[in-house]
Structure formats: structure tokens, C-alpha cells
Amino acid sequence: MKHILFIVVVFCMIIISCSTSKNSYSSIMSETGSVKLITLDPGHFHAALIQNKFYPQVDSTVYVYAPKGEDLNEHLKKIESYNLQTINPTHWNEIVYDESDYLEKMLADRKGNVVVLAGNNGKKTDYIERSLEAGFNVLADKPMAINSDNFFLLKKCFSIAKQKGILLYDIMTERNEITTILQRELSMSTDVYGIQEKGSPEDPAIVKESVHHFFKNVSGNPLKRPAWFFDVDQEGEGIVDVTTHLVDLVQWEAFPEKSIDYYKDIQLLDANHWTTAISLSEFRQVTGMTDYPDFLLKDVKNDSLRVYCNGDILYRLKGVCAKVSVTWKYTFPKGGGDTHFSIMKGSKCNLVIRQGKDQNYQPELYVEAVKKQDLLAFEKTLNALFKKIALKYPGITLQKQSKNVWQVMISPKYRVGHEAHFGQVMDNFLLYLKNRQLPSWEVPNMLAKYYLTTTALEVAKKKDKSVTEQTYK
Prior knowledge:
Distance between the termini: 80 Å
Number of helices: 15
CATH architecture of the largest domain: 2-Layer Sandwich
Largest sheet: 10 strands, mixed
Oligomer: single chain
Shape: globular
CATH superfamily of the largest domain: Dihydrodipicolinate Reductase, domain 2
CATH topology of the largest domain: Dihydrodipicolinate Reductase, domain 2
Helix content: 40-55%
């Protein structure tokens, strides 16, 4: 009888343990009654942008765990500026712990239930693992992995999150940009877009290009970047950093809400990387430092810092040939800013986003009909579709530019800007927290994205090695 009783007790304990693990998010929420944010080691301004608006379901007290230094100081300055802004001021109360054992202290204190990560990418995947193991939900800035070792650890992290019933999610702001939203919307209309072209390596069916700048304004002030941002061992190369947005958009637009298996659905065709030169005077302007720190000297050649911040990836996704590329310059021309180009090629039209000088550096969407069809019939179908789109997005209209080209005219109310997109991402994440799950396709597609970028980096580096070996033969 005692033996049977012992077995029953042990079985009950196992059930309770499994239940606690799977419902850790639920138990934390029931204890706190709201979402409580923890900011861990903020070194990138994206950490602050999550807090550029206030959320009713989020506690106003945020716990910050980070080492002393400029990264922390700059983060707190930005939060203070949001509290002091005249329009829609926030009311954040930042409680800071800045001793050297900040990570262990965060894990022991358990002051919140969502860890926000945006900083040194060389540490990020480890931070994610430690946070998840402790039972915290994690909202992480891109990239969550900057090399293949990180990718395999990230796979483990998603398994931990699933086991514990908590969420791991990355910040994909570009899904909230209005021209991208409309490009996706139009591509889902077979009457207007037709069938997605497959393309070829010489003529990819989907192309996305991004141009970024080291020196620019954020929240109305010149952006001060940490020196480690220029070290690819800490920030990651451009091919694994900004390209995460582009790879994500290819997946999100071409195969909306469809799961991608990176073993079966991705074929990497080619990858390249190259450097941008930063002079010492430019480095001083953007960092506030007087000289290059020792960890950057390995990348200094001919008195300039050479940063591997540029890259491109050519691949097939479910048979569709796509190319993404990122380029970094020091700063932009007067009136300019970061720019984006995108083209999706359908059997009936191309959907093109341009953001150059002709567009006043503002993204604009164009519909370019394939000329080998009845253009009058196409225009009638296109106008009919836009009547439906206008019901969903009031203020969106269509303006004919030439015989086969139309520009999508976008109301200023949709031009909220890059910084506001962080609040939109947070709104979605809070909804996922409430439902206690991500959409079923999000996790496999995050894995596919980071598999592609980290594998592409390996390919680009191997090509460098091959060139070097040929040079010495």
C-alpha cells in the first residue's frame, strides 16, 4: 500500500512540475497583473525605441540591468527624453542596477516577465538562452544570431521557450512600413499581380536593397554609436545584421503566413561581403572617442577603419529566386536618409518600392503592368481592387503615371516613421503574450531567416579565403 501511495505522489509531482513549466508565463502574469519589462544591457538605441510610447498593459516601472558606461547612459537619456516630450509624454520609471554582476542579479531578482534585448550582438544569443532558462519571455532586436554557432544555440533557445510555454520573438519593424504592407497586399491579388514569377540567378524575381548610414539623427538628435558597433565580432557583419529585415520581408510577402522549412525550402546560391572605410575624424564624430580602441586596430588599414558592413545574398525560397543586399555609407546627402528598394515580379505586374532623390527620399510604391497584356482590362481590374483597398486603408488612392505605370498615393497619416514602428511591434508582441502563443509560422520562419544569413556569412568568408589562396599560389 505504501509503495502504491509513493508512486501516486511521485506521479502527481511530475504532473505539477510539467504544468508549472508549460504555464510559467501564466503564473508570472497572475502574480504581477501586468507586463513588467526588464531591459538587459542596452547598447543599441532600439532598446529605448520600444519605450517611445506608453502601453496601458505595461507597468510604468522598468528594471534595467547593465554595466556602467556610455551605453547605459545613452539609453537612460533617450528614455528621459520620451518622458519629457511635449506630445504624448511617457511616464517610465527606470530602476537601474549597474554592477558587474548585472546578469546574475537580473536572473535572481526576477523583477519582470519580459526581457528586452538590443545591444552587443556578440552576447545576445547567450543572453537569450539565460533569460529563457530563467522563465522570462524575450523580445530581442535583430539579429538574434550573427554566426553559425549562434544559430545552433538559437535553435536550442526556441526549444527552451516551447518547453517552458514562454515567447521568444525578434523585432521586425519593416513589416509595419506602409509601402511594404501595400506591396504585400497587392501581391496576394491574383487578378492584379498574377502568379509569382520564379526568376533566375541572373534576373531574380524578388529583390530587396537597403542603404544605411552610420551618422544620422534619432529622436531628433545626432545618433551616438558605441565603438563596438564597428567591430563585426560584436555587432555582426552587415550580411547577418540588416539583411535579417530583408530576408524576413521576402518570406512575409511572398509566402504570407506560410511556414518555411530551412532544410527543404531554402537553396543558397551565392553570398558576398565587402567593407566600408571610416576615417578617424568620422569615427570621432559618431562615437565621441578620440581614437580607435585596441579591439578595432585589427581592422584599420591605411589610417581608415574597414568595416565588413556590406553584403548580398542570392538564394531560392520555395523555388523563387531572390536577392537581398545591404550597403552602409557614413552619412546621407542633404534631405536624405536610410533608403529601401524592393521589387516583386508577378506574371501580370511588378510591384516596386523606390526611395531615392526622385521620391524625396520617401518610400513610394509603383505598379508596373507587364506590357504583353490588355492594359485597359488590367487598369479596370486594378481600379476595382483599389476601391476595396481604400475601404481597408482610407486615404490610399491610385494615380496613373504612364501607359503601364501607376503610383500608389499614400495619406500622410500612414507615414508614421521608422521610430514609431517599434511601438507597433510591441503592440503585436503584447497581443501574442495575451494569447500566450505566436502565430504557428513565426518560429520556423525566424529559424529559416537566421539559418540563411549565418550560412551566407560562411559562404562569403570562404570565397575570401579562396581568393587569398589563389593569390599566394
